């Protein structure tokens, strides 16, 4: 409130300052030429002084005097010519308009611009006052802890305090370095390893990557029932497309957790999302049963066995989808190719047969399937 | 609340500026005294408001209020108090606010001292000043608001750039801005004259003191910046022809030209149109300089990319003011009456020569500065127009000018006699050659060009003295008379002599350092000694030390001459902890006007340290000369003749020539 009162007083004072000359209007203005005459008179004075002091030769002084005198004459003439009565018109409409402008412009421009750019509700926050009454000023606590750590960089306890605060205030890079310093100085613990992994995951936007996984596994080795580590590892499985394993892992967490544990709702959400995955496919890309980019990237890093497993998983889910919706030419082509790559000729032939049932040999689709089969070396004879 | 009140004061200053831009100007066209007078009040009000705003920001910096983004980004609770103050303008937003503060300060000065100006001229000048202030206030508020807040407030600031944590920063920008912005008054006067279509004699009398003041400040600012770069950057160089330096040097060159052409205009009413154009150009270059330093007009296409609004805003301001003023000039210049005639050989002629060279030099520097930037922006090619380009072109341009400087004051107005002036300068030439020969003897030879350069500097000093001697009639009239005459000389004569001698001193410094400095780079282990400039330096070793917000390694050197210890010096490498940024603190020892400059480099694997030692003969002459120039400006400014009486209002019509015709 006080703020707005001061704002009002400021605005009013400036308005008054500007209104004063307008209200006092009147009195003649000076006239063009009059000032010039003054300057030339001044110059003549100087000239006289210079001549008296012998600073200028007499003949030069005479010439200069003549020149200045000529100008003075001209200026005086101008002054007379311009001498028009004025002041009468000045009290008129323009003056009142100007007064109105002063009264309107200052508060309107002032408030409009201030309200869009300012933050009137924010109080000052000088550091001394904040230090005197820190309360729950997290930023300040961080700064103080940082200062202590700067003075004593090997203080492991400091990192233990600071790291989770960094994490909570979203400074993940700082959190990562603080957690790793804490691990280095205080030794690994599920708390520190889990926090470290969590920060890494948060920084990569939720992806459980190799470095985080390593830390989580290390944490599990220290405390096998740590729900946080198990949750993130399960999440990692889910992100890799290992739905079955992920589901098992999530169910395991539920089984080992006490009833009413705070993380259960989240875990159950994942279970609910995973469990019906192959029964009710989502729209779009999922319709084709194609792996997403992350899954492909993961597949490249897998061992041959793992990869084969992943492909088989995908193929079986694709087969299920095609059973429900056979009018999917691309899906048939993909599944035939997949069987062929996996070396399961019989299944490939079976898929071809089923595909041809949906897309007759005479049609475009059928011919494409047959061409593919021929290319892959699948016997097309047995097909209908 | 202080912060927000400061913010509101700035917004209100913008609103007041808007009124100040509109009302007096309308008043001038309608010859309405009330409206014109409101400009004066508005000028005071704007200045007070911006001052309040600046005070609020300063308060936030001093109390480390990190809820203000500007404080958080440019301050730290641990830095010494003085840097909390100077940190206010040690950043883009704050320095723009300082710019505004100085601009409105000058407007208030015009309002205060402008009683002896024709009403309409004063009204127009205040209007133009307000227009500039409005543009800057909008720029500050919309793109670079120093009062932006942070929620939640961070617990610690990010520190002031360590290079800027120096007493030099506390002084350099305000001086520089006083110079830059001082020229805004000349600009406003020029535009006002163009709008009115007439140039009063009062105009010329007014423009000169403003030019003098701005020029003196700019001289001081540039010199301070140069000295600061010299001792802080640790390279031992004092001028790098870097765009930032050129940006302040160009308005200085144009301002020097303006200073001289305004003289011709005042005395002889000649060169009117040219003076107006120079006034426009000088401030245009100041504007360019202001912006070239920060987001850069062209420097960084990148800075535009990070905040395109800022860059576009700057371009609009530049186009509006420079383009607008030049357009006005093109349309109205023809209406201004050209005045007084003069012969080519005359004081006027000499000043025209001065103007030609100075503007050419400014154009050369402008080309050298902008061309590589423009080329990079257009084609992506990086070329470097380095010191060799500038030294060649600029040096060659300056030579004839420097030679001609002593002639100027000796030539008569209208018609001069070069031969007579040359004869009178005989002593100065002889003095110059003598000094050159003396240096040759002392240095045991040396490059001929360098000796000639020193002779040139000495000749300029001699020339300045000659002028004073001739004017006082020393040697021709009795001593007492000469003394009376000398003390009766107008102050501006002393100002001229001081400034011209200052140029000579600076020339001597530049030539001496360039030709006779010696550089020694070597790896030193504790206890080792080396020679530089006739002094022996012993490296005593390095020890760690701790400052308020930095840690440093300081090396100690003992300096002796002919076996006797004369001095010792510390030279340090600092690491500012908050930004993890290293700086060098060179150890500098002064012997007369010469200096020994010791800078610590990297550690060597064998336990030694790379040490760079420079012997800089007469280097202080460079800045000593600029101090003389500045003093010359100040002395000229105090000349009684620059203060003119105001006609009393409503007096009887001026008639005839009362005493003049006697």
From TrEMBL, chain A:
Keywords: Cytochrome c-type biogenesis, TPR repeat
Superkingdom of the source species: Bacteria
One GO location term (cellular component): cell envelope
Subcellular location: Cell envelope
SUPFAM superfamilies from the UniProt entry: TPR-like
The keyword Transit peptide is assigned to this record: no
GO biological process annotation, one example: cytochrome complex assembly
Keyword Signal: no
TPR repeat positions: 156-189
Stored InterPro entries: C-type_cytochrome_biogenesis, Cyt_c_biogenesis_CcmI, TPR-like_helical_dom_sf, TPR_rpt
Cross-referenced PANTHER family: CYTOCHROME C-TYPE BIOGENESIS PROTEIN CCMH
Protein name: C-type cytochrome biogenesis protein CcmI
Originating species: Ferranicluibacter rubi
From TrEMBL, chain B:
Domain (Cytochrome c assembly protein): residue spans on this chain: 89-295
Domain Cytochrome c-type biogenesis protein CcmF C-terminal: 315-640
Molecular function terms from GO: heme binding; heme transmembrane transporter activity; lyase activity
Spans through the membrane: 6-29, 41-62, 96-113, 125-144, 175-195, 207-229, 249-266, 273-292, 312-331, 352-374, 394-413, 425-442, 448-470, 494-516, 613-635
Sorted UniProt keywords: Cell inner membrane, Cell membrane, Cytochrome c-type biogenesis, Lyase, Membrane, Transmembrane, Transmembrane helix
GO BP field: cytochrome complex assembly
A Pfam family per the record: Cytochrom_C_asm
GO cellular component terms, semicolon-separated: plasma membrane
Subcellular locations according to the entry: Cell inner membrane
Major site of localization recorded for this protein: membrane
Biological role stated in the UniProt entry: Required for the biogenesis of c-type cytochromes. Possible subunit of a heme lyase.
Name of the featured protein: Heme lyase CcmF/NrfE family subunit
Organism in which the protein naturally occurs: Ferranicluibacter rubi
